[in-house]
Amino acid sequence: DPSCIKLWHGNARDRGSLNETNCSELIESIAKDGGNLVPVIVRRIPGDNLYFELIAGMRRHFAVDHLQRFHPDLLLLAQVVT
């Protein structure tokens, strides 16, 4: 669930710069494929069993988060690294 992922402060991409317009091709692609085919990369936050930290895949995270408003059953594919 994208809402269980906190954004890593060292991420190179600014979440505020992402919007439906500049991510439209990715949003359409993920919607057509039924989810993101390339997983986002997350890691567990020490001492926190509820949340993960997003390391890579900010645009994919944004796109799935956006699509879940219309398709709540759509899941975010993620790879957990240590």
Task: Describe what this molecule looks like in 3D.
It is built from 2 helices and 4 strands; from the N terminus they run βαββαβ. It is α/β, with parallel strands linked by helices and 82 residues long. A 4-stranded mixed beta sheet has the order 1-3-2-4. Helix 1 crosses helix 2. The longest helix has 10 residues. The chain starts with a strand and ends with a strand.
Blueprint of the fold:
Elements: E1 5-7, H1 24-33, E2 40-45, E3 48-56, H2 58-67, E4 78-81
Helix pairs in contact: 1-2
Task: Provide the descriptors you would attach to this structure in a database record.
4 strands, four-stranded mixed β-sheet, alpha/beta, 2 helices, 24% helix, 82 residues
Summarize the structure.
It contains 2 helices and 4 strands, in the order βαββαβ. The protein has 82 residues and is α/β, with parallel strands linked by helices. Helix 1 packs across helix 2 (58-67).
Could you report the average pLDDT, rounded to the nearest whole number?
91
Q: What overall geometry do the principal axes of the alpha carbons give?
A: globular
The largest pleated sheet is described as: 4 strands, mixed
Portion in helices: 10-25%
Number of helices: 2
Q: What is the radius of gyration computed over CA atoms, rounded to a whole number of angstroms?
A: 12 Å
Spatial separation of the terminal alpha carbons: 19 Å
- Low-confidence spans: none
Count of strand segments: 4
Beta-strand proportion? 25-35%
The SSE order reads EHEEHE
The quaternary structure here is single chain
The class by helix and strand makeup works out as alpha/beta
| Lateral arrangement of strands in the main beta sheet | 1-3-2-4
